[in-house]
């Protein structure tokens, strides 16, 4: 691709040497280099998104009659969609703040002088290297009715809990989500902590700031953009949580574990493209609004740093 662009660069130089100004030639060459990426984005992201919008506005792929927002109304009033949306929202509300706060805490601990730091770091990164099916198998053994967790609770006189078929199923999935994502988030926060200018920390020390003030007023404020990025990635991951729940409980899990991705998967299996497309657009709008709200909070929180 580089050779292709360079050859066209030389041809354009020869052809338009006397017709285009230097600035125009630079712009043309820039667009030439950007063209492959733009084509890829248009072909694999923009075009499918337009197709999804189109399917959400017609009655079916054969008659293709325009029905306006009727598919959106049908999806919005669908009981399964409401159940899945409510469960996903509750799950995100629990999992995302925990993923951000715990990984930030772990990064701060890893930054301090503690023994066996490299071993702890490897331990928290290990979920990234383990196949999901293996993780799910371990989780099933741990949270089975006769599993390790219930046997441990029996020591303290607690009755057995059917973790995956009760209201406590959220605990299992949130714990699995955190176990999988804390290591990656922790590395991002450790990188952000290492990039904080030393002179800021020295000034804080000269001003007799204690450790809590240095962490909250200097470090957290300076890391606001990284916190935003981790929060957004965790939010998107929480909306896509499906594979682990599906492997543990199948297509139709206990009602508190029925997530939006279950609804999408089951709708896709029934070939109801209109409902699937409308649900995808609604999900996209909700995630976009939440991400925009996060950006607004980050802009307000870190406005003095950017100025």
UniProtKB/TrEMBL annotation:
<feature type="transmembrane region" description="Helical">
    <location>
        <begin position="89"/>
        <end position="110"/>
    </location>
</feature>
<keyword id="KW-0812">Transmembrane</keyword>
<keyword id="KW-0813">Transport</keyword>
<comment type="similarity">
    <text>Belongs to the binding-protein-dependent transport system permease family.</text>
</comment>
<dbReference type="GO" id="GO:0005886">
    <property type="term" value="C:plasma membrane"/>
</dbReference>
<protein>
    <submittedName>
        <fullName>ABC transporter permease protein</fullName>
    </submittedName>
</protein>
<dbReference type="InterPro" id="IPR051393">
    <property type="entry name" value="ABC_transporter_permease"/>
</dbReference>
<keyword id="KW-0472">Membrane</keyword>
<feature type="transmembrane region" description="Helical">
    <location>
        <begin position="28"/>
        <end position="57"/>
    </location>
</feature>
<feature type="transmembrane region" description="Helical">
    <location>
        <begin position="214"/>
        <end position="236"/>
    </location>
</feature>
<keyword id="KW-1003">Cell membrane</keyword>
<keyword id="KW-1133">Transmembrane helix</keyword>
<dbReference type="InterPro" id="IPR000515">
    <property type="entry name" value="MetI-like"/>
</dbReference>
<dbReference type="GO" id="GO:0055085">
    <property type="term" value="P:transmembrane transport"/>
</dbReference>
<dbReference type="InterPro" id="IPR035906">
    <property type="entry name" value="MetI-like_sf"/>
</dbReference>
<feature type="transmembrane region" description="Helical">
    <location>
        <begin position="276"/>
        <end position="297"/>
    </location>
</feature>
<dbReference type="Pfam" id="PF00528">
    <property type="entry name" value="BPD_transp_1"/>
</dbReference>
<feature type="domain" description="ABC transmembrane type-1">
    <location>
        <begin position="85"/>
        <end position="294"/>
    </location>
</feature>
<feature type="transmembrane region" description="Helical">
    <location>
        <begin position="122"/>
        <end position="142"/>
    </location>
</feature>
<feature type="transmembrane region" description="Helical">
    <location>
        <begin position="169"/>
        <end position="193"/>
    </location>
</feature>
